[in-house]
Amino acid sequence: MxxxxxxxxxxxxxxxxxxxxxxxxxxxxxxxxxxxxIAQSHxxxxxxxxxxxxxxxxxxxxxxxxxxxxxxxxxSELDRERREIKDLREREEDEVFEVFEVYGLTRxxxxxxxxxxxxxxxxxxDFMMRFELxxxxxxxxxxxxxxxxxxxxxxxxGIFPLVPYFLVGEAQRxxxxxxxxxxVALGVFGWAKARFTGTPRMWSAVQTVLVGGAAAAAxxxxxxxxx
Amino acid sequence: MxxxxxxxxxxxxxxxxxxxxxxxxxxxxxxxxxxxxIAQSHxxxxxxxxxxxxxxxxxxxxxxxxxxxxxxxxxSELDRERREIKDLREREEDEVFEVFEVYGLTRxxxxxxxxxxxxxxxxxxDFMMRFELxxxxxxxxxxxxxxxxxxxxxxxxGIFPLVPYFLVGEAQRxxxxxxxxxxVALGVFGWAKARFTGTPRMWSAVQTVLVGGAAAAAxxxxxxxxx
Lengths: 227, 227
What we know:
With 227 residues, the first copy, chain A, is mostly helical. Chain A contains 9 helices and no strands. In chain A, helix 2 (41-87) crosses helix 3.
């Protein structure tokens, strides 16, 4: 859900973290909220599963289309850079200089690089993509895998807090089991994901529990007020 | 919800798009799903509002903490780069070379840049942050504003599909108004956001409607199956 640029770890781990962050939080909070307003676990399960379906599709399909859009955007910008290098060489050379100007370099200092690029139009285009436009080359076929991993992690995270409602018919009683288990799971998840985000582990665990707890408390208060 | 790197437009516009993408989709889909299983609009409203509370807090507070974590991570990495430039100058010079090696440049071609950096350790560190580590300088005080804009947009987007349920007591009848109005709103939103994502406008509108429609249909089918 959040833009995690400072992420150490593979793309798949990142997708699991993205899907599970929301999956463990929102369906849990919704179920907790409804337990404050509805007596039967049955209705909480219905709403919880509907949320898991909606959330996983919104994240998975939405993410798939966004990634496809990014890949197309990258391809069209790369095309444009290549054309500019061919047809508007002088302007493109100025643009190389502008990239380095920010760092206090003079035209003379940048000149050897421009000269090298003249012989390597392909690498020049790659360079402009990253250094002028800030675009990273998207991994081929990444969109589908990423969408499935995010959606799957959301489903796994989202079903977990609902399990007690399947076992205990009275919603308020099921809530205590669900809240206990989910807050522990959020803590463990926060602890584990700290390895990839660079946040101190204990603080990451506390944060993750706090977000889940706050979301559940707000949902509970609102559902009770309106029921 | 999705990582939108290829985004043209201000940070605030981006936050509105992020919050509203999910806000217009998930609470709508949940309400639609429950309308297939529950007769009274009243319960749909309770669940919908609980979802809006949970989702906006998960996105807002979660986003706030993630942004704070990124800012801290940036500051600590910048510290490290500065220390390395001071204490491990030779290794750091090798690293500048490695950044350019990928683009086919020789050590001799990169040398003028390394020489210029020797006199400008501050700009050298900024360069390493962006081009070695791929980290952008986070805007000061951005986290709080970003969190509020995302959460607020989620609330606005999420309340919209619930309005018909306040006005029409029978859930299935309220659903037809909600679905009609929300699918139109999703289309308009998809059309409008295309200005910033680079996707063709019509295709962006169709995509946004499709994601919302698919999420609602899945939630509806699941809720009906389990009720």
